[in-house]
Amino acid sequence: MTATPAPRPARFLAVLSLLWVASLTPVLAATHPGQAELVREVARETGKSPQALNALLDGAKMQQGILDAISRPAEGKPWKDYRPIFLTDKRIDDGVAFYREHRALLDQIGRQYGVAPQYIVAIVGVETSYGGNTGKYKVLDALVTLGLYYPPRAKFFREQLKELLSLPDNHLAGPLDTLTGSYAGAQGWGQFMPTSIRDFAVDADQDGHIDLQNSLPDIFASVANYFVKHGWVTGGPVAARAQPDASATPLTVTDTKPTWPLEQLEAWGYAPLQPLSPAEPSSLQTLEGPNGPEYWFTFQNFYVITRYNRSPLYAMAVNQLAQAIEAGVGPAEAAR
């Protein structure tokens, strides 16, 4: 006689049912590596919806062109090749015209922040040709690509991506998934990264919205505020040519932070070609010019410009463009 099997417990049957259903349900994988953890962090810290954050990231694309672009930055060129990119007759003439067109606003913001207006103009001139080219890449694509697919600088760009997802809507020029900018994820006329928007962007027109794409007061004041918060010295020098003598002490300079009083550099054989305070904190930059090495004393305000972009070439281009714009506008107009 065959024994009748005992009935399965109801809980056991329920577990089997769940396992069977699970086997028919596809596993939902994140679109990008590290996406799940990033979404958890942003949702936990901001209260934003994980579903909405995932939807944004699912719509972003890794772009090989962005990885290619970051591997060949213009700052890798020598000064003799870098300078002609930014110090063109057109960029200078456009800067003079731009300053004149917006003179009242620029001078007002310059006085308010203590930043020479020609340097605000030079920043937007170097960064975006006075707003004419703010970038073609989707900011979300750029930061996803560099933050999640570019190991050499993943830490920095993941931080920027996290901040982009965390920013309030009134700190952005439009819906997050429509923003465009540089291959590095910078946006607006002044090319601010998300952490810079968080820390330095200003609602200068007081409309309750920071708009670095469409509001000139916000754009100009944000650049000036960035300089001030990094230690800009009102009326201070930026850079000046130095002439080494035959016995000048060779110097190894690793950054642009002012390290010595100018008189120490003079004692080491580097003479200024214009009157400067002997006590002025300074550094020395050696650039590869078209006719050989160029020696430059650089000061606190030069260092501040390198907080915008760490390259001394960038800071020198901004400085020389600002001087050319000032000369084109005339001293009566270009306020200091």
Annotated CATH topology of the domain at 35-72 and 135-186: Helicase, Ruva Protein, domain 3
The structure class reads alpha+beta
- Helix tally? 15
| Counted beta strands | 7
Distance between the termini: 108 Å
Signal peptide: 1-29
Domain Transglycosylase SLT: 36-323
Protein name: Lytic murein transglycosylase B
Active site: 127
List the helices and strands and how they pair.
Blueprint: H1 10-24, H2 35-46, H3 50-58, H4 64-70, H5 79-86, H6 89-101, H7 103-113, H8 117-128, E1 137-138, H9 139-149, H10 154-166, E2 180-181, H11 194-200, H12 216-229, E3 239-244, E4 260-261, H13 262-267, E5 270-272, E6 281-289, E7 292-298, H14 300-308, H15 312-329
Antiparallel strand pairs: 1-2, 3-5, 3-7, 4-6, 6-7
Helix pairs in contact: 2-3, 2-10, 5-15, 6-8, 6-15, 7-8, 7-12, 8-15, 9-10, 11-12, 14-15
Description:
The structure is a single chain. The chain has 15 helices and 7 strands. With 336 residues, the protein is α+β, with helices and mostly antiparallel strands. α2 crosses α10 (154-166) and α6 packs across α15 (312-329). It is globular, with a radius of gyration of 27 Å. Residues 1-29 form the signal peptide. InterPro entries: Lysozyme-like_dom_sf (IPR023346), Lytic_transglycosylase_MltB (IPR011757), MltB-like (IPR043426), SLT_2 (IPR031304). Pfam families: SLT_2 (PF13406).
